Structures are given as structure tokens and as C-alpha cells.
């Protein structure tokens, strides 16, 4: 079986493009970048001995500043870097990412296996880019890359002053040939408006903006502008078509529809034909109707140039069909264009119900949530329910780490040595009170990590508690530090809360998690 | 029977590649061919492209400007020229970027370019030198400022949105949109975006919602043109037409295999004689 379905290797891809290095090799999962790098490393070595010495020196310097840089999990990366091969994804610690980036910029990495994030922002050009696949997981489903995404990555190929063309290679997967992508730069997708109305947006509008300004956001945002523009165009077309139909209808005479009118008689003849074929042709009412029609048809036809009328009526029918389609699209637009005014009012009344605002006036909860920019309702309730201040600081650190965290499929962390039942209870209560799910996203998963880090554990100890990667742990803790800064600001006169937030932050923002030498 | 045949055939192929590997792998790992001299095209001193000059001219006249150009064509240079001008005039500017790593990088770059004392960095979890005339931020922070403390932006004449096509991001786009709508009216905008087909539409929306003239500068050509090829299993490099043929062929083979497989399994496993 293995022989039949043998997956093509990156080795033969690199073999094919070896005259166009350095290459950025885009893959769409972290594991895949590592797997491919390992595979290439078994057969290829890109560095001369002089280059190897340089790489070794750079790595040693980095390690002197940060002992344990590669840790227990990334020894393979060190070995690969010495062969001129690297991988780069969000699971790596920032320091390690930085090292790989520096080596890449010094042209000491010949093939870099990376994920999409490597193509955002900082420009790391290459001689060529390779696409391992043309589909990616977007958080909900596997979908083909958009033209925009493809060219954002592909466009890294071609170094100004070095390469005459930037070479882009798309791998055809033996198992899924139909998933191979074909992209065109002139088909890049248009930008659409994506405004969303969060509780913080509503509070900020009510507190800081005038009615006119609120209306500006709700009625003149990009999404509304775009759908208005399309419906304006459609309406204009409908009008034009209707005018054309009216123009055509002018050739009809006042006798239209009378017994003597040929237009009418054509219709009647059709009806008569159908009546004759009908399986109920012997029923009395049908027979009667047939006689009626036959009588009319026996009468004299008006002598006129009826062909003009027939022609016009056919054209009008076609125009009407088109108008009908346009109306359908307009209805669709109306239904799908988001009613931002209503969304705003819905969130507003939810906030009123929960005691954040009274009319336009912000109540204490509202004034607090005004300075929270992530899961503002949940965070405010965690504070106002007393959970944060009443729990031991250790547990508060653990609870806040889970705010807005959506665990991936097989992420695991050891459970914490204390119960998080109060938070679960609060969430259940909020959901029952009509707070939508996406306004109270929280997970117990990161709790134990934050607690241990708060207590002074080493980063290696954290790694021992979970299958999450260094970069994930780093970003969980950095996000908590971000949140703690918001809470400190939101606390205002509440000294105890502000002090707690600052203390938690001080304890979390250290060693591997601290951002140094920005 | 047919399946067995394919398997054998493939396996034979497999042996061949293994043998090849041995040849090259005998003295260790394979090394790339290195080209003696790299093609070095005349790089020349930094001469501005037409679109760069056009954009900079509009900015110096104080317009809000949208620049849409492919990556690597030198959009950053436009931003740097503008910042140089603003700082020389003793005014302030904000530079926003979509990701923290990029903010950090820009903070470093600008520090080297304009002097560290003139550059500050503000992200959710970090702030350095907040009083500096040139502030690098995440777009979310700038959006918050537009609501909570627009007075802080009194002496800030421009906000630069890097990677402005993030407007289209389902989760984060809203921060760009709220920023554009509520950036204080005295501030002008420089939007840097990848190529998007409806840049004119965005500019007329901005003109309407902000009530100001918006200039669009577009560059469609890449500094270095792209050439897309496909790589078939086995390593052949194909052009588009060949790639489509290859794919059609492979699909045909798969269909045939699946059909054979169904026939064999329908006939019963005992016929499969491994």
C-alpha cells in the first residue's frame, strides 16, 4: 500500500528547484513544516564549512544570552540550521523565531519551511517560494487559499537586484491532484467591510460619541456603503428595463386584448390546443370553454400589422423576466445587508438588561467595561461578582488566562490543583441571562500554566505540564498581561483591584515570557 | 490482479530511486549546485519609482492617500519619506501594523532611522517611550485612542495603516474600520495595501465618511515579476497547461484504481493473493 500511495517528498521538489535557492516553502500546519524539514535534512546539506562556522557562532552567541534557547524540544532545529535548513511557525518561542529570521536574513538558511504568518508584514524575500498545498485550515474548515492569500505568500519570491523573475512552485499532491491551485493576480478578491458591534463598541459610542457620530458608524460603514452601492446599481438597471418595456408597449393599439386582436387570438389558439389534449377534454366545463373559444376564433380578425405587436410582446416578456431576477437579487441584498442599527440596539438593550447602562448613561459596570477590549462582559462580571478579588491571587491568575481562549483539537494541560467551578457557574448564569456565547468565551485549559508561572515555575516545567508549544504558552501569558493592563486601567478608584492586577502582571512578566530588546 | 501489478511496478520504481540516493549519499549528504556568480542586476542608488514619487508628492501636499502595490515594490519607502518630513516639521505621526511582531520590528527600524528618542511603541502588553512624536502601535490601540483620548492626537498629523487590506479580516477588520471613521478630522491617513481590485471603491467610501479628498496611487507591476510553475510528483517542473493535463491524468488513474478496487472487493478478498 505504501508503494501505491507514497506521498511525494519535498526532497524531489528541492532537487527540481535547487538552482533557485533560497526558497520559502509554505506549509499549512506546524507539524508539516517540521516533518518536511526533517525529511530534507536527512538527505541535503546546503552549507559550506565556512558558513557552518558562522551559523555555529551565531547560535552560540544566542545561547549564551538565553541558555536553554532550543530547550528539550527543538534540538532538531539546531541540527537542521547547521545544514542550512530551518522551520518557522507560531509554536516556536519568539527568541527562536528571531534567531531563524536573523539567519535567514544573513542568507544562511537555504530552505525555510514556514507557515503563512511568515509572509505578513516584514519582508523576507527569497529566490523562490514553494506551496506544499493550496488549502488551509481557517479555524472552521479546510478551504482553498484565496488569490489574495496566495499572492501575499508567492510575492515573497524575487529579490530586487538579484533575481530576474521570482519563481513560484506549486506542488501537485499525488493523492489530491484536484486540490492543486491555479491563481491569477488579476482575480484578487475585493476588500469587504467587516464592522462588528461588540459591547465595547456600544459603550464607547454611548460614552464618547454624539448621536450624529453614532449614526455615521452605523449607516455609513464600508459594508453598508458597498451593499447600498450594489442595490443602487440594480435599481438603476431595473428602471432602465422598465422604461424600455414601456417604450415597446407603445405599439399596442386600444384593441389589444379584444376578440379581434391577433395577440389575444394567439393565446386563445394555444389554450384551445391544450384543451383538446387535456385528459379531461370530455368534462362538460371544458367542452363549454372549447366552444366559447372556437366561437371567438370564428369572428373576424382585425386587419393590422400584428407581427409588430407579437414581436414587442415577446421582448417585453424577456425584459420582465430579467426585472424579476433583479428584484430577487435586491430582496436578497436587503435580507443579507446587515442591519447595524438593529445590531447596535440589540447589544445596547442587552447591556441595559445587565446593568451596564441606563439610557445613554454608563453605570459602574459599563464604566469598567469601557476599558476592557476582550470579552468585556465576561471580564466585568468576573470582577463585579467578586471572583477575582475573593480568590487567592494564584487562582485569579489562572482564571484570567482562560479569557477568550479557544482550545485547539488535541491540546492538553494538566488540570490545576483547585476548582474553577465558580467561573463555570458564572458563565452558565450569563448564558441563561441571554448573553450570546461569543461574548463569554473562556476555557479552563490554560489555568494550570498561568498558576504555575505565577508561582515561579521555570518555562521547562510549564512545557512538562502540557503538549502546547513554547509559542502558545508565550502568547497565552502575554495575552493575560495585556488583559491585566486593561483591568488595571479599568479599575480606576478601586485600589485593591488595581494593585492586584499590577502584582499579577509583575509576577507573570518575567524571564522567557518577558519581551526583551524589542 | 491488476492491483498487484501496479504495486509491483511502483515498488520497482521505488528501488530505482533508492539506488540513486545511494550513489549521491555515499559520501554524506547531497549538496546543491552553486552558481558561480549570481545575476546581479543594476541595483543603482535609490531612485524613486513613478508611483512612489506620486504618492510622496500627494502626501507632502497634505492629502489622505491610499497606496495599493504588490509586496516588495517599496511601499515602506513612501512611509519613511512621509515620517521624515513630519518629524522635521516637529509634528507627530502614528504607524499601525496588524501584528505585534511587525510593530516591534518597525519600532527597531524607525529607531535606527530617526533616532530611538523619537520613536515609541505601544501594544496591548508593552509600552515604551509613549511621549515620542512617532508612535508605533497596533491598530486596536489606535482605535481605542480615537475613542478615549483623541486629545492625545492633537499634534499628530498623519496615521499610517500598514497592510490596510486587513479591513477585510473577519475578526479584526472592525478595528481598521472604526479607526478610519473616527480618526480625528485634522488627521490625514496614509493607507498601504496589497493589490486589491476595489481600491477606488474604498477611497470613495473614505472620502464620503471622512469628508475629505482621498488620492489613490496604484502600482500593478511587481518590481520582480512572478513566474508560476507546478511540480509534479517525481519532480518535473510544468507550466500551467502541462499541469492541468497532469492533474487530469492523475484523476483518471485514481478513478480507474477506485473502480478496480471496488470490483476486486466486490469479488471477494480471497482473490487477492499477496
TrEMBL record, chain A:
Gene3D superfamilies per UniProt: 1.10.3380.30, P-loop containing nucleotide triphosphate hydrolases
GO molecular function (one): helicase activity
Organism: Desulfofundulus thermosubterraneus DSM 16057
An example Gene Ontology biological process: nuclear-transcribed mRNA catabolic process, 3'-5' exonucleolytic nonsense-mediated decay
PANTHER family reported for this sequence: ATP-DEPENDENT RNA AND DNA HELICASE, ATP-DEPENDENT RNA HELICASE SUPV3L1, MITOCHONDRIAL-RELATED
Protein's UniProt keywords contain Glycoprotein: no
Coiled-coil ranges from the UniProt annotation: 224-251, 283-336
One Pfam family per UniProt: Helicase_C
PROSITE patterns per UniProt: HELICASE_CTER
GO cellular component, one term: Ski complex
Record-given protein name: Helicase conserved C-terminal domain-containing protein
UniProt keyword annotation of Protein biosynthesis present: no
Keywords for this protein: ATP-binding, Coiled coil, Helicase, Hydrolase, Nucleotide-binding
Residue span, Helicase C-terminal domain: 9-206
TrEMBL record, chain B:
One Pfam assignment: DEAD
Keywords, comma-separated and alphabetical: ATP-binding, Helicase, Hydrolase, Nucleotide-binding
SMART domains membership: DEXDc
GO CC, alphabetical: Ski complex
Hydrolase keyword on record: yes
Gene3D superfamilies in UniProt: P-loop containing nucleotide triphosphate hydrolases
InterPro entries: DEAD/DEAH_box_helicase_dom, Helicase_ATP-bd, P-loop_NTPase, RNA-DNA_Helicase
GO MF assignments: ATP binding; helicase activity; hydrolase activity; nucleic acid binding
GO BP annotations, alphabetical order: nuclear-transcribed mRNA catabolic process, 3'-5' exonucleolytic nonsense-mediated decay
UniProt domain Helicase ATP-binding: residue ranges: 56-214
Name the UniProt record assigns to this protein: DEAD/DEAH box helicase
UniProt source species: Desulfofundulus thermosubterraneus DSM 16057
